[in-house]
Fold:
Amino acid sequence: MYRFITLLYFLFISAILHTANATDTSMPNNSIGLLYGEPTSNQNKTIYTYDIEYQNVFMRSDSKRFFLGAGATIGQISVDNERGERFSLYLTPGIKVGSFTFALIGGGVYLTKTVFGENELHTKDYGGHFQFKIGANAIFHATKHWTLGYQFEHMSNWNNYSHNPALNTHNIVVQYLF
Structure:
């Protein structure tokens, strides 16, 4: 399933690059946002993610509906009473339909802490510091400058380490566009 989403992601980027021109200055190209995530399934530990996000749309199609952006996040992963920082860089192709934006996300994540609960019965081991993330979101544009939305995110190391537990999260997203 994730390989299929990754293939769609790259096909979507190719379509945008094929029809793109300079960005429209009448539409906000930058955003700063807050994300809060919880796992999509039961885990052996209580897990939450918190991120602050900056995103820049650097290319739009002639119709202004399709776009390609890049973003960065800095945040934390909280596992029971332990925390580790996480940093990510990603590309995000998307489409704007009326008051909604639908986008895909693909990039890399760096975790400062990879093993949680080492001295406990249940351990959460993400395998290593470097992870990949893919996802999709649906964002509602409440005003010209404020959005509220949902984002699904899959984080895993794609079997680059001995452990690959992956983390799928439901995220609430609030953004300010400028």
